[in-house]
């Protein structure tokens, strides 16, 4: 499709804007009043302190013991978190802190390379793979205050090392190790989620097209310092389109906010060496909304840049995704009509992040 061969207007790197020491951000990044964040520093002037809730922190160590009571309690915590929050932190998840740190360091080095080198990997809206600065191809859209790098790891037919950064040295090895560990964790979680629904442990994975065909990609988000963080967002409200997301957050700089049940934005404070897990739209559809894909966004900071690694575990692109027949009953009829992940993603890649409007469009008429 020729329409999506290139961006509708010249790409501006947010990092370059940030480094040019502007006092005011360009209008392209100024959000309408209703979408601007209420920054934490302004919050203690509010009568109601909004920091009242926090997403659950789950110790996955409980899954690897012989203590069956603890094992069951851990499964139960995951089940509750998927139903009530759609978002939780995990600790003792099996990934070594050294590898987590190495991955972050490697990407920080990448984003600090000279612009000419990064631009050699510039992406296009055709596949989004590579170094990018916008999501969506609508001309004149209001943009987010971030740059990113996006790459495919799974299925192996989509893995293309020439689309991965060539620098810093050893970057590809680190990435390979990191993504392999992420896939392991996702496969484990898929089995657990399936069992927690009262299903055989491979049902959810099979609905994704099986272990070999499931997709895995990495999006590294780079949020440069921003002189007017109160006017913009690092990432607009969205729910993740895929299956499961595992985020390695920046432990030094908070920024991720999750939409709580009363619609308030809750800032996530990462626990040491924690990973943040969230349910994506495909699992919400497959589970007929038993598990929730929750809206989230990112705010930026005037003082610090922020880096995060989001690993997305997705269904195979061309298989039908619809509520699992085991979960559809007379009392709980199917809430969504069938789609494929490739189709679903295309609307997001055209329009950019839009709260939860993409999944709501698939609600069956009732
Ligand atoms: C994402 C995302 C959050 C963050 O990449 O989809 O929500 O903290 N990232 O960067
Ligand atoms: Ni997200």
Total domains: 1
CATH class designation: Mainly Beta
Query: What is the string of SSEs from the N terminus onward?
Result: HHEHEHHEEHHEEEEEEHEEEEHH
What is the count of β-strands? 14
CATH architecture: Sandwich
Helix content: 25-40%
Strand content: 15-25%
CATH superfamily, by name, is B-lactam Antibiotic, Isopenicillin N Synthase, Chain
In terms of per-residue confidence, which ranges show pLDDT below 50 for 5 or more consecutive residues?
42-49
Report mean pLDDT, rounded to a whole number.
93
Largest sheet: 8 strands, mixed
Radius of gyration: 20 Å
State the end-to-end distance.
34 Å
Shape: globular
Arrangement of strands in the largest sheet: 1-2-10-7-12-5-4-3
Write the layout of secondary structure elements.
Layout: H1 14-19, H2 40-43, E1 57-59, H3 68-84, E2 87-91, H4 97-111, H5 115-119, E3 130-132, E4 147-154, H6 171-196, H7 203-207, E5 215-223, E6 235-238, E7 244-248, E8 256-259, E9 265-267, E10 275-279, H8 281-286, E11 296-298, E12 306-314, E13 320-321, E14 339-340, H9 341-351, H10 357-360
Parallel strand pairs: 1-2
Antiparallel strand pairs: 2-10, 3-4, 4-5, 5-12, 6-11, 7-10, 7-12, 8-9, 8-11, 13-14
The protein binds N-oxalylglycine and nickel (II) ion (NI).
Nickel (II) ion (NI) is lined by residues 238, 240, 296.
Please give a structural write-up.
The protein has 366 residues and is α+β, with helices and mostly antiparallel strands. It has one domain (14-360): B-lactam Antibiotic, Isopenicillin N Synthase, Chain (Jelly Rolls), CATH 2.60.120.330. It has helices at 14-19, 40-43, 68-84, 97-111, 115-119, 171-196, 203-207, 281-286, 341-351, 357-360, and strands at 57-59, 87-91, 130-132, 147-154, 215-223, 235-238, 244-248, 256-259, 265-267, 275-279, 296-298, 306-314, 320-321, 339-340. An eight-stranded mixed beta sheet has the order 1-2-10-7-12-5-4-3. Strands 6-11-8-9 form a four-stranded antiparallel beta sheet, with no helix packed on it. It has a two-stranded antiparallel sheet with strand order 13-14. A hairpin with a 5-residue loop joins strand 8 (256-259) and strand 9. Mean pLDDT is 93; it is low at 42-49. The protein binds N-oxalylglycine and nickel (II) ion.
